[in-house]
Design brief:
This protein is α/β, with parallel strands linked by helices. It folds into two domains: 169 residues, TIM Barrel (Alpha-Beta Barrel), CATH 3.20.20.10; 165 residues, Lyase, Ornithine Decarboxylase, Chain A, domain 1 (Beta Barrel). Helices cover 28% and strands 22% of the residues. It contains twelve helices and 21 strands. Strands 1, 10, 13, 14, 15, 16, 18, 19 and 20 form a nine-stranded mixed β-sheet that branches. A hairpin with a 5-residue loop joins strand 11 and strand 12. Helix 4 packs parallel to helix 5, helix 5 packs across helix 6 and helix 10 packs across helix 11. The protein is elongated.
Length: 412
C-alpha cells in the first residue's frame, strides 16, 4: 500500500477469493494461485493466508523479493517467481529462501550454477519457454543446448516446465492457443528425453476454464481468482459463471450542492448543466489511482443506482450527478467499485470506462488503504499504515435517514 492520506478504502473479501479458488480446482489438476503484484492489489499476505488455509500448496509471485516476503512471513509452500532472478541479489535469495525461479536465459543458469557450487546448496527451477508471447523464455533452437546445460549442473532439479498463453481469453484466436500448445509439447518432450521429471504448466485462468489437458497439470490461476470472468462478453462467457468479485472500493462525499442550468463544473468547463441539477463532490481523484480518463465517462454507485461523473476528474476530487436522490450528505459512503444489486459496479465496468483492463483497476485501487472482511462479517485493517499516523476515518458512518429517490421533474 502506498497511498495513505485519503478517504478511499478498498475492502477485500478473502472468502470470495477462496470460493473462486475452489471453483477453479473443480476443473482438476494442480491449481497454483497467482498472487504476484501484491495479489493483484488484494494484499499478498492476507490472500496467501486465506488460500493456504483452503489447501493451496504452491503460490506464483512476481519478483524473487516478493517470494522472500512470503518465506519471512512463515509460508513453507512451494513459491514460484514468475520474473525469476533479475539481479545478483535475487540469485542469493533463490537459494537462501528456497524459491523456485522461472529460468529463461543461459546467463541465469550460469549464475545459479556458480552460486550453488560455491554454497553447496541445491536449487529447483521452472524452465520457461517462449511459445508465442515473445517476452521471456527459451525457444526451439535452444533445446539441445539447454538440456545439456541443465544436465551438467550438479544439484539442479527441474521442478516445472512453463510457458504462457497469449490469447486464451479470445475464442476467436484459439488457433494460436493450439499453436502454442504444440510448441510447448515439443519443449517438454525435449526435457523428458533428457531424463527430467517435472510438472508442465501452460494454462492461465482462461485456459483452466476452457482446456482439459492432463499433461499440463500445474494450472496458474490469475485474474479469475479475484472474480473476473476472462470470457465475459464472448461466446464462452458461461465457462466463468460462478466467479464472485472480491474487491470493492469506497470513498466519502465532501459536499452536496445545486448546479443551476447553464453552469459548468470542474477544470476546463468540459461539462455544463443542461438542466438544474444536484451534484455531490466526491473525495477521489487521480492521486488516489482513480484515473483522469474517467472524466465525463464513468459512474459511481450510490443509494442503489449508478451516478454519472460530471466534468474532469481532479487530483483528489470529482463531481457526480445526484439529482433525484435525497438524504445525500457530506461524509456519506459512495462506491467507486462494488455496491449492491444490478447497478453495482464491476471491475470490468470501470475498466471499460477507463479504457483499460480489470487487472489495472485491481492493482491501482489496491494501492489505497485496505480493509479485510472476516469470516464473522467484521472488518479488520491489519496491514494498514493509518494506525501509525493518527486518526483513522471510520469504516462506516450511520446514515441519518433512508436514501430516497425522486424524479428530476419533482425536484425541479
Amino acid at each position: 500500500m502506498s497511498i495513505a492520506y485519503n478517504y478511499l478504502r478498498t475492502r477485500v473479501r478473502t472468502g470470495a477469493i477462496v470460493a473462486n479458488y475452489n471453483l477453479l480446482r473443480r476443473h482438476g489438476g494442480h491449481v497454483v494461485p497467482v498472487i504476484k503484484a501484491d495479489a493483484y492489489g488484494h494484499g499478498l499476505l492476507p490472500v496467501a493466508s486465506a488460500l493456504a488455509g483452503a489447501g493451496a500448496d504452491a503460490f506464483a509471485i512476481g519478483s524473487v523479493a516478493e517470494g522472500a516476503a512470503l518465506r519471512e512471513a512463515g509460508f513453507s509452500t512451494t513459491i514460484l517467481s514468475l520474473m525469476g532472478p533479475v539481479v545478483p541479489e535475487d540469485d542469493e535469495l533463490v537459494l537462501a529462501r528456497g524459491i523456485v525461479p522461472f529460468i529463461y536465459d543461459f546467463g541465469q543458469l550460469d549464475r545459479l550454477a556458480g552460486l550453488a557450487a560455491t554454497t553447496g546448496r541445491t536449487v529447483e527451477v521452472a524452465v520457461a519457454f517462449d511459445t508465442g508471447m515473445a517476452r521471456l523464455g527459451f525457444v526451439e533452437k535452444d533445446l539441445d543446448r539447454l538440456v545439456g546445460r541443465l544436465r551438467a549442473i550438479p544439484g539442479l532439479t527441474v521442478r516445472f516446465a512453463v510457458s504462457h498463453l497469449a490469447t486464451a481469453d479470445d475464442p476467436e484466436a484459439f488457433a494460436f492457443v493450439e499453436e502454442q500448445g504444440e510448441r510447448f509439447a515439443t519443449a517438454c518432450q525435449a526435457l523428458v528425453r533428457g531424463g527430467f521429471t517435472f510438472e508442465a504448466s501452460l494454462l492461465n485462468s482462461a485456459g483452466i476454464l476452457a482446456i482439459d489437458r492432463e499433461d499440463w497439470p500445474a494450472k496458474r490461476a490469475g485474474v479469475a481468482l479475484y472474480g473476473v470472468n476472462p470470457f465475459l462478453g464472448t461466446a464462452r462467457e458461461a465457462l466463468g459463471r460462478g466467479l464472485v468479485p472480491a474487491m470493492e472500493t469506497t470513498t466519502r462525499i465532501v459536499s452536496v450542492h445545486d448546479l443551476p442550468q447553464g453552469r459548468s463544473i470542474s477544470y476546463g468547463r468540459t461539462f455544463r448543466a443542461e438542466r438544474d441539477m444536484r451534484v455531490a463532490i466526491v473525495a477521489a481523484g487521480y492521486a488516489d489511482a482513480y484515473s483522469r480518463s474517467l472524466s465525463n465517462t464513468g459512474f459511481m454507485w450510490l443509494c442503489g443506482r449508478r451516478v454519472p461523473i460530471l466534468g474532469r476528474v481532479c487530483m483528489q476530487m470529482v463531481a457526480v450527478d445526484v439529482t433525484g436522490l435525497t438524504e445525500v450528505a457530506p461524509g456519506d459512503v459512495i462506491h467507486l467499485l462494488g455496491g449492491e444489486g444490478p447497478e453495482a459496479i464491476t471491475a470490468n465496468d470501470v475498466a471499460e470506462w477507463w479504457g483499460t483492463i480489470p487487472y489495472e483497476v485491481f492493482c491501482l485501487f489496491g494501492l489505497n488503504p485496505r480493509e479485510y472482511v472476516r469470516e464473522d462479517g467484521g472488518i479488520s485493517c491489519p496491514f494498514s499504515l493509518l494506525g501509525a499516523m493518527g486518526t483513522v476515518f471510520p469504516a462506516e458512518r450511520p446514515r441519518r435517514g433512508r436514501c430516497l429517490s425522486r424524479t428530476p421533474e419533482v425536484l425541479s
